[in-house]
UniProtKB/TrEMBL annotation:
Protein name per Swiss-Prot or TrEMBL: beta-glucosidase
Keywords: Glycosidase, Hydrolase, Signal
Organism, as annotated: Actinomadura monticuli
E.C. number: 3.2.1.21
Any Pfam family the entry gives: Glyco_hydro_3
Leading EC class: hydrolase
Protein family (similarity comment): Belongs to the glycosyl hydrolase 3 family.
Lineage: Bacteria, Bacillati, Actinomycetota, Actinomycetes, Streptosporangiales
Reactions mediated catalytically: Hydrolysis of terminal, non-reducing beta-D-glucosyl residues with release of beta-D-glucose
């Protein structure tokens, strides 16, 4: 709760700053366009070039209005007092993972976003709000949306067109409910499977990740003018840069072991592995925003031991990204990321703004952020030119999105959310993501007339197969979204199916056993190995494999997980082994390849370790001897008529 006197003090300071800023702004406003009595301001003229509109609007803004544009609050922090959007002149609001309206439906979302937007349009200059959300594998916070495989599965498809189609559908489903901006795609290069965000990466090879950056085109469209349609959203390439390349044990965030840790590297290697996808994101796809990582970088050139948080790195944010690579969009900080910069709050704010951060995700401290940045500018510690650069970048995105002309939600495509057409694309993605790692004695494809015994909780748990970032931040087990489970898919193909979650039902008479093993949902550092997680199979999963594979002549094992798990000791028991990743809402896509309706074509986007102790292991390493190498994947022919 705010101290009762703070508001009055802030208001007094604010008034004097407004007066100062207004006086300071008058010359530039006049220089841009002489004010004509009764004429509509130039920035509202959609026929003018975006740069001219930005310049005109900037010239009219007070310092307080500019700082407001640089501030992003969580909807949960402002929902009880939506007038904060107006009083702080907020530039953006976000929904964190699981931050949803009471009515979690397309209309519930759109009504909520539009209500916030009306508060932004009540400000003096009527600058519309940008609403951001983590649509990382579909519009995953919305119950009923099409939920795609997580990125690691999409990497296994080796199909950039499919990734572009996925993000095109995600953009349509997201925009129809209000948000115009997504914190996706993650173009991190995952170099250590112990990282809890491994499944958010397309793979360990920067070339593969760079190919999949075409997803940005799915989000934003092929041309700048596509952004203003109801089919596209502003994309965010994240997390710049090196978040998948941190050293195990280097994290200082709570009990995390690797997430938000330190990337220890030299500049040449960093450019080749960690920076490469961002160059493509900027040069080929004109990505509109980039989110710097929680992680730090520690350059070997100047001796290890002095890591710099990405949010504080002038070298990487301004010198490399904005100047050298030529990024002309805006930078959005990650969730309270600047709080990890050394020093008091004023130092954190000043350091990050001066390093090049443009908008600040300060979910629960937006008023404090505004006050602090105003004081820093007023004291001369942050230049107004830096503020103008930041705000100009943010306004550019808003003009390109057409928000000044159409600030409210276009609900015209809401009827397509979770449609059969959209789900068909997700089902194709699931099928193409399946990686066949072992197939002895022709175990796969299955025949419809075989009596199939299915075991394992992950066979019939849509929450587990969707993983983290589904309805809530961490995701959860159970029947949380509509769709088909892997068991549903198997039952659609065969009428001779017995399901026993714990393999306790009699196996006699079965021709084939299908054991579905894997992980339960987690997100970010919560899923780090060493933080209550391991790459090893659970005792229950091992027991299910032992029970079923010893009793039934043909035994098939599917792994539903966000990363490879250690199966070295169990592999000899299985006739077939399939990596199913986290398929999302369309589990029937797994059955499509099991029964030969589609061929197995997926290939590993990461190296599969023999043991947890072998991590990190990546293609190209010296002494490279994984259980299955990067790019491995057996193929089968499709048997249509099966």
């Amino acid at each position: 709760m705010r101290h009762p006197h703070q508001g009055a003090i802030a208001t007094r300071i604010g008034r004097s700053l407004v007066a100062l800023a207004t006086i300071a702004a008058i010359p530039s406003a006049v220089a841009v366009r002489p004010a004509l009595a009764g004429a509509s301001p130039a920035y509202l003229d959609a026929r003018l070039p975006v740069a001219e509109r930005v310049s005109d609007l900037l010239g009219r803004m007070t310092l307080e209005e500019k700082v407001g544009q640089m501030t992003q609050a969580e909807r949960g922090a402002i929902d009880g007092d939506r007038d904060q959007i107006t009083s702080l002149a907020l530039g953006s609001v976000l929904s964190g993972g699981g931050s949803v309206p009471a009515d979690n439906t397309p209309s519930g979302w759109a009504d909520m976003v539009d209500a916030y937007q009306s508060k932004a349009l009540a400000t003096r200059l009527k600058i519309p709000l940008l609403y951001g959300i983590d649509s990382v594998h579909g519009h995953n916070n919305l119950v009923g949306a099409t939920v795609f495989p997580h990125n690691i599965g999409m990497g296994a498809t080796r199909d950039p067109r499919l990734v572009r189609d996925e993000e095109r559908i995600t953009a349509i489903e997201t925009k129809a409910t209000g948000p115009q901006w997504v914190f996706a795609p993650c173009v991190c290069v995952s170099r250590d499977l112990r990282w809890g965000r491994t499944y958010e990466s397309f793979g360990e090879d920067p070339r593969l990740v760079t190919e999949m950056a075409v997803g940005i085109e799915g989000f934003q469209g092929e041309r700048k003018r596509d952004l203003a349609t109801n089919r596209h959203v502003l994309a965010t390439a994240k997390h710049y840069a090196g978040d998948g390349d941190t050293v195990f044990g280097s994290s200082t965030s709570g009990t995390y072991t690797i997430d938000q840790g330190v990337t220890v590297t030299d500049r040449k290697t960093f450019a080749r592995i960690d920076l490469a996808p961002y160059v493509t994101a900027v040069h080929e796809y004109g990505v509109g925003s980039i989110m710097p990582s929680f992680s730090s970088v520690d350059w070997k050139e100047d001796g290890v031991g002095n890591p710099v948080k990405m949010s504080a790195s002038t070298e990487l944010l301004t010198e490399v990204l904005k100047k050298k690579i030529g990024f002309d969009g805006f930078l959005i900080s990650d969730w309270e990321a600047i709080h990890q910069i050394p020093g008091d709050y004023a130092t954190q704010v000043r350091t990050s703004v001066n390093a090049g951060m443009d908008m600040f995700m300060e979910p629960y401290s937006a008023p404090q952020f505004v006050r602090t940045l105003l004081a820093e500018v007023n004291a001369g510690r942050v230049k107004t030119s830096r503020i103008d650069d930041a705000v100009g970048r943010i306004l550019k995105a808003k003009f390109e999105l057409g928000l000044f002309e159409h600030p409210y939600t276009d609900r015209g495509l809401a009827k397509t959310i979770g449609s059969p057409e959209h789900r068909a694309v997700a089902r194709e993605a699931v099928a193409k993501s399946q990686v066949l790692l072992k197939n002895s004695r022709g175990a796969l494809p299955l025949r419809k007339d075989e009596r199939i015994y299915v075991a394992g909780a992950n066979a019939d748990d849509i929450g587990n197969q969707a993983g983290g970032w589904t309805v809530t931040w961490q995701g959860s087990s159970g029947d949380i979204i509509p769709g088909t489970t892997i068991l549903d898919g198997i039952e659609q193909n065969s009428s001779h199916v017995t399901y026993s979650e714990d393999a306790s039902a009699p196996t006699s008479g079965s021709d084939v056993g299908v054991v579905v093993v894997g992980e339960t949902p987690y997100a970010e550092g919560v899923g780090d190995v060493g933080n209550g997680h391991t790459l090893n199979l659970s005792d229950t999963d091992k027991a299910n494999i032992d029970t079923v594979c010893s009793a039934i002549r043909t035994c098939v094992v599917l792994d539903v997980a966000g990363r490879p798990q250690i199966v070295t000791d169990q592999l000899s028991e299985m006739d077939a082994f399939v990596m199913s990743w986290l398929p999302g809402s369309e589990g029937a896509g797994v059955a499509d390849v099991l029964f030969g309706k589609r061929a197995f074509t997926g290939r590993l986007p990461v190296s599969w370790p023999r043991s947890e102790g072998q991590e990190p292991i990546n293609v190209g390493d010296r002494g490279y001897k994984p259980l299955f190498p990067y790019g491995y994947g057996l193929r089968t022919a499709a048997h249509h008529g099966h």
